[in-house]
Amino acid sequence: MAERRLEIGAGLGDTLATLPAAYALAAKGVKVEIAALQPGGGVKWRTDSLPTLKVFGNGHVSPYAEAFEFWSRTDWGANRPMVDQVARIVGTEIRDTPRTALLRATPEHERTARKLVGNSPYVVIAPEGSWHGSGNKLYSQDQVRAVVRACHGRAEAVLCHFEPLHYRDTGALDLCGKTSLDEFVALVACAKAVVSTDTGSAHLAGAFNKPLLCATGPSINPYCIALDYLPSVFLKAPLDVKNNDPALLRQWTSAVLDVADARVCMVAPDRWPCGVVDVARRLSAALGCDLRTWDDDLSDVDAVVCQYHPADSIAWSKWRRRWGDVPRVWDVHKPDELPADGAPCIVHWTQYAGNVPGHRTRFIPLPTWEVPAEQWGPRPGATPRVIAWHGMVREHKGLEALVRVFEQQVRPAVPDAELRLYGTTGPRICDPALVSWLRGLRVDGLTVDLREEWSQDELQAALAEADVYVYLDTPESGREQSACSPAVLGFKRPVVVSESSCHQDLQDWTRTAHRGAEGDALVELLTSAPAYAQACQWVEYGAEFRSPELVAQQYRGMAQQAMLNDIIKRGV
To answer: What are phi and psi of 326, to 5 degrees?
Structure first.
């Protein structure tokens, strides 16, 4: 792997704003170290000081790696998103990797936070910039008191800074100058919400998808980060943070706490036995919320995530007439016939990002299955021999090509190889002629198991016995995102995909087979231990930020932002 060392300013926010570009580089096989430098020289911290994605390893590279200083070339006052500015400077583009640092709260964070503040919910208040007395990034005494009053009865207010501050009689728990970096990260990771100026805590809130109220002065253009930090609201005053009205801060703190308490649910069709409902089930479980259908009552929820497919557009139109006032996010599997109602959209295929008329889109990858840790990676003591496919039995799934590749290329090279096809044949979704053809096949090493509907437990148990997964889909009507191939990344075993655009967001993490070379890719994985081990490692990287936990974290942030947008429209 190539290695790069990115040297930046010493601010925590600088480090966090750089991580998305580093993730994009890592997806292209570049190992990255981010070194935040002390003023006057020396390293303040490196990537491994933060709970980042595993793609970095321990965050260290060779001392002879290319050093690339770039922070003087970025502009916090520009409209262009900061993460895109950094990516352009280092020569990459953020398309199908996270647009935030995407940090995960851990049990250790929970233990640390409870030791510092107890068991009650709390709000982190960061009233100054990274350095004490930092110019126009400084809350007044009255502003801090206003925020604390908004928290009263709902959450404990906790003042945080790396240095002691001099706020008096605020009624907040004062931890300024009393926490290490690790403890500060833990406090933000477990907070109910964050109220901050333009400083590291605001960027940490964005990384953990914590509800954020950020009051700024002239030091930053909110548009360069606000669209990536969800949920958030920014108050910008001329000349100085202190010019923000304390009464306004109190009102918006209350609004952010309302969003933090939001009751979110998912709504999906109840009769669509395919990836749409499968994704909804996985994410509703990760969110800890109900999965509801079109006919269910939503009067007890504050925001919804809607699993949209154009096959159900008429039913969704009826649903909107009944529940159109509930803040919503469209989770779009295909945007055809989606009403241009201005609601935000989650898209799972990069071609849709920015290309759904009437909507602001955000790419979030489809989640993996939640696979027990004992099933991760190579099967213990097994020589790779079993290839598996699962999905709907439809023409564009490439099943005829897959059987031909197995029979003509894989079996002659690996005589004991097996191909197991686990298909769904629901009447609305399958091709009857293809079902009949599959059931009539007699090919050595081939197992065909077709069912009208699989339970997730049965399907996962069957797929757990495979060593390699293969999906040779071709685009349906030029644009089809398969939910099957991302799901099996949870096993952290090699996945072979076609170069079809169905799998565009997976090609960095899986073995992408060019047309006519699918058999070669499968044979190499079954016969070469080094190739198999390397493929397992890359799948593990790609699976991490597709984990149901992290994907659900982003979904919740989107739903909460929809609620916050509704509050903004109505006014606090």
So the answer is: -80, 125
Cα(83)–Cα(225) distance, rounded to whole angstroms? 8
The answer to whether 226 and 267 have CB atoms below 8 angstroms apart is no
CA dist 89 and 82 (Å) reads 11
- Residue 2's DSSP bridge partners are 30
- DSSP secondary structure string, 189-208? HT-SEEEE-SSHHHHHHHHT
> What confidence score (pLDDT) does residue 536 get?
92
Residue 419, classed as helix, strand or coil, is strand
User: Is the N-terminal amide bond of 20 cis, ω within 30° of 0?
Assistant: no
- Alpha carbons 400 and 23: distance in angstroms, whole number: 36
The span from the CA of 158 to the CA of 155, in Å, is 9
Global confidence as pTM? 0.91
| Structural domains of the chain ordered from first start | 2-89 (no CATH), 107-261 (3.40.50.2000), 265-367 (3.40.50), 373-546 (3.40.50.2000)
**Is the separation of the CB atoms in 92 and 24 below 8 Å?**
yes
Per-residue pLDDT at 422 = 96
Rounded Cα–Cα distance for residues 447 and 439 (Å): 10
The residues, any chain, with a CB within 8 Å of residue 175's CB and separated by 6 or more, are 116, 117, 158, 159, 160, 187
455-482 residue pLDDT tens? 888 999 999 999 999 998 876 555 555 6
Q: Sorting pLDDT into bands at 50, 70 and 90, what band is 41? A: low
Residues in the chain: 572
CA distance 287 to 241: 35
Contact between residue 49 and residue 83 where contact means Cβ atoms under 8 Å apart: no
Q: Do 122 and 115 touch, CB atoms closer than 8 A?
A: no
Neighbours of 474 (CB within 10 A): 16
Measured distance CA(238)–CA(243) in Å, rounded: 7
Quick: pLDDT tens for 340-372: 899 999 988 777 888 888 898 999 988 998 898
Q: DSSP per residue over 512-538, as a string?
A: EEPTT-HHHHHHHHHH-HHHHHHHHHH
The SS3 of residue 329 is strand
Residue 46's pLDDT band, with cuts at 50, 70 and 90, is: low
Going by C-beta distance under 8 Å and a sequence separation of 6 or more, which residues neighbour residue 244?
143, 215, 235, 237
Determine contact, residues 278/487, Cβ cutoff 8 Å. yes
Across the range 157-176, mean pLDDT stands at 90
In degrees and rounded to multiples of 5, residue 115 shows phi and psi of -65, -35
| C-alpha dihedral sign at 228, 46, 552, 256 | negative
The sheet carrying 30-37 orders its strands as 43-46, 30-37, 2-8, 66-69
Is 385 in contact with 467 (CB distance < 8 Å)? Answer: yes
Instruction: List, in sequence order, every residue forming a beta bridge with 156; answer none if it has no partner.
Output: 122
In whole angstroms, what is the distance from residue 175 CA to residue 188 CA? 13
Task: Report pLDDT digits (tens) over 374-386.
Answer: 888 998 888 999 9
Backbone angles phi, psi at 429, to 5 degrees: -125, -15
